[in-house]
Specification:
- The protein is an alpha+beta fold.
- It contains four helices and eight strands; from the N terminus they run αβββαββββααβ.
Length: about 170
């Protein structure tokens, strides 16, 4: 009997800690005033939109081939200047998340650098080839010298987004 009471007390303690940390690190789509955002692609429906600090930890635990459905809020570091077909989002460290859009069914405006966005989709890690890195640098309007300086592939935090909200 004493063991059962200790087990139940421990379980209650652990559950209390877990729910408190989730409240500090995520928010619900219900908390968003949709009129304050422009919507692109599918409707963002996640019940737990994580903060960018939590996102970095998620990616650090990934191995090649791992995927997860996720929604998070971040700041746009870079966007395709040609047609808005990709964007790079800030993480809490030096890495960025490369976001492309599901089936190229939608694009985002080309002038959203430094804007706050909420993206929903499938997160994964990929290795980006030198050719692709150079193409992306060209789309971003980088100089020929910057493009030619790309000589090695890179591990990339990636996301295929099915929905994006951009704060007005």
């Amino acid at each position: 009997m004493k063991r059962k009471l200790l087990f139940i007390a421990g379980l209650i303690y652990l559950l209390g800690c877990t729910s408190e940390s989730k409240e500090k690190q995520s928010f619900s789509v219900k908390d968003i005033v949709v009129t304050n955002y422009d919507s692109f692609g599918s409707e963002v429906t996640s019940e737990n939109i994580i903060q960018v600090q939590q996102l970095t930890n998620t990616y650090k635990n990934f191995k090649q081939g791992d995927t997860i459905d996720i929604a998070f809020s971040s700041i746009v570091n870079d966007v395709c200047k040609a047609k808005g077909c990709w964007m790079k989002l800030k993480t809490s460290h030096a890495e960025e998340v490369m976001v492309k859009f599901k089936d190229y069914s939608f694009f985002v405006p080309k002038d959203i650098e430094k804007d706050t966005v909420i993206v929903q989709g499938k997160a994964y890690i990929s290795e980006t080839s030198v050719e692709e890195l150079r193409h992306l640098a060209s789309d971003a309007g980088k100089s020929k010298e910057e493009i030619d300086a790309i000589i090695a592939p890179r591990k990339t935090y990636s996301l295929i987004a099915d929905g994006v909200l951009i704060k007005k």
